[in-house]
Amino acid sequence: MESKKLSFNWRMIKRDILRNWPIWGATTAIFLLTITGTLGLFTYYDKTERQVIKEVISWLLMVSSFASIVLGLFVALAAFGYLGSKKKHYFYEFLPMNRISLFTTRFLFGFIVMMIPCIIIYLVELIQIFSTTGYFIIGSMTAWLAIMAVQNLFWFAFGTLFVVLCGRRLMAGILYAAFAFVGILIEYTIAIYNSFMFIGYGRSFSTNDVLDIGIFSPIEYIFSNKLYYGTYSYINDGDYVNIDGIFGTGKLIVVLISALVLIAASLVLYRKRECERTEDNIVFKIFKPVLSSLFTIFFTIEMTLLMVGIFASQAEGFSHVPVYRIFIIVLIIIFGYIGYMISCMIIEKSFKVFKKNFIKASIVTGAMIIFMILYMHDIFGFETKVPDIDDITTCYVSGDQYQSERYYSETQMSKDDIQKVIELHNIILGHLDEVIEFNNEKNGIGYLFREASVVIRGVEYRDSNGKKLDIGDRIFIDYNLKNGNNVYRDYYIIPEGSLYEELKAYINKYPDFFLPGDADVQYYFD
Amino acid sequence: MIKVENVTKTFDGFKALDELNLHVVKGSVYGLVGPNGAGKSTIIRHLTGIYRQDSGNITIDGQNVYDNAEIKARISYIPDDLYFFLNSDMDDMAKFYSGIYKNFNMERYNKLLTVITSIDRKKTIRKMSKGMQKQAAFVLAMCQMSDVMILDEPVDGLDPVMRRQIWSLLMQDVTERKVTVLVSSHNLRELEDVCDTVGIMNKGKMLLERSLFEMQEGITKLQVAFKEDSIPQITEDSIEGFKLLSNTKNGSVYTLIVKCPEEEIKTKLSAYEPLLLDTVPLTLEEIFIHELGGEHYGIKEIIL
Predict the structure, then answer these.
(1) ipTM confidence score
(2) Are B25 and B148 members of one domain?
(3) Which residues of A make CB contacts under 8 Å with B?
(4) In terms of Cα–Cα distance, which of A277, A101, A164, A96 is closest to B48?
(5) pTM > 0.95
(6) Cβ-Cβ contacts under 8 Å for A345 (sequence gap 6 or more)
(7) A270 plus A293 within the same structural domain
């Protein structure tokens, strides 16, 4: 019967803490230098208690949070790195401890190593700050310690999961890095794809508000505006530092719950892990096709982007041009198969992977093609999405030849003004076919091979030197959202046709808003 | 004490153990032999709770071994591929083991180091030679005061003097504390001196598992010289109705290995009034060669 009794081996923990002193020792030294340096800088100036707290906590929080991310992986490797070596793994597996006890012992060791620098800093800095400034900031330092305990638990659990999942340490490190940024990577990839697929995105790589998945990236979630930018605004404003304002109790609870889920998942995987698979790159068979698929998707996306960048970097509106659609589908087929086979070679550590993985590669490639076709047909509504009025703080409209600069410094516009911009945007979207038609003429098949003239309704526009002419103007629409995101669109409008007329009429309905009085600016719609 | 019942283990389609059965009686010494790739180390890793079998049961004293801390605390294991902590000396490892094994005997540890004087307790174990590391592993294993010792080629790499010393200490434990020992080795000659029971494995299966006494009981080796006019009928594979495993002739002296009890063959051959009729002790090696020779198991591979 497998024994499920939980116990810790404190002697093993103590021994390993002492043996791994370089990890926590170096971290402690870095923290001490940071705070000592910060304190040293402002001993020249008289500071209030509030200012001291802001300076210390903001720098400490930033440095320790970054340290937590790096340490998470290294400490996980220190605690569970034996899983990557057959000799070591067999040695530990043979010890008279059940797997739960061994896991908890190693986990506790790792967590203590991550917390030692924080505890030392907590004690040292209370004394140092008091002796330097006369202020005893125990409340703020205790809040910082609590935040770091949660962050350390999360990143250590995050690292542990990948170390348990993988046989090779390098693979664990790669997956750790990739999944730390996964939400950000996906968001930016979508932004880049949108910029050449759809009308209106231009080269802005605007983060989209249709699919806000940054929350799934631990880096993004923990290091969002409040942690970094928020602390600086508190310093500048002279307000008292409220730790809840910096990190947010709600966010802290989410991070804590995520950490506990990761620990549970790691324990489940650890108990099921087979020693004979120690030196496999991925230890669990079930995850191999999953990771292969993820790698294939990432590889295909990046290689497709690269090819598009080489052949047609200035074009946009790909999803409306048949030849570009075919071009992208062909690239997906090629890179889908190549990517899947490369991932299998890495995971299986063998070159002979083609035959047994052909069907799986076909499934993944087929799924990517289907997804791309749906995406090209704008199933997610990227091309026609306008932010909701309640989500917007400010927005403004400008163009190549005019600008409305009224609202640069405002933090919140009235709903009426926001509505004006939204309606202007909707007018353009209502004539999207016209914009697409012009775009296809402008960015026709010639763009696949870089050179193209501007052909508008059968007329080619070139200057006397044979250089193509840009015809039309761009209208830029910029929304700042309450969640900190920015939505940016720009549309090429030619000075004829029903869209131009309707826009002109609408803009001239609200001249004070859209056309600020400046004699030097050429008004495109005047 | 140790029971392996119909255990099967497959690694990526390769059947390493194929319904293997193995039984070790308490207080006995069991020798596990077989060619390279037979599955000896694989079954040993199952017995020590490192691997989990796909099917079948592995029990020690009626309890499953896998993930069982209580049973594992009663087992000492010396693997073929040793591991020691980086920069650890004997005292470091002893301290570590004393924190893990409740019965670890520091007094015995100190005493053994006075007996095996070649080990420098302050030297980093990883910097020692392979033979010295084996000695270090043996000392640490002996001090765990366990009921069961599982040794995977324990004397491989040791000099003859040290081998004898190790076996001597081991047998002392078996006698005094009724320790059950399972040892795997390629060296049949050495096992012959210490084992009560021997099991031969090949291709994941147990081909033969018998006590040495039983093995020797059924086979007789004789040297016989017949008078010229009184020679019994000897064919390639039989003599006087008994199965003949081996027949070599040196001048007029036959050396025969016959599969039958000693008394029976002697009675039969005495009727021919031979000039010479002597029983010769049979080695384990010869038993295995001739016991398994008819089963086409590539017996040459088993004997080094």
Answers:
(1) 0.84
(2) yes
(3) 1-3, 5, 9, 11-12, 15, 19, 86-88, 90-91, 93-99, 101, 271, 274-276
(4) A96
(5) no
(6) A351, A353
(7) no
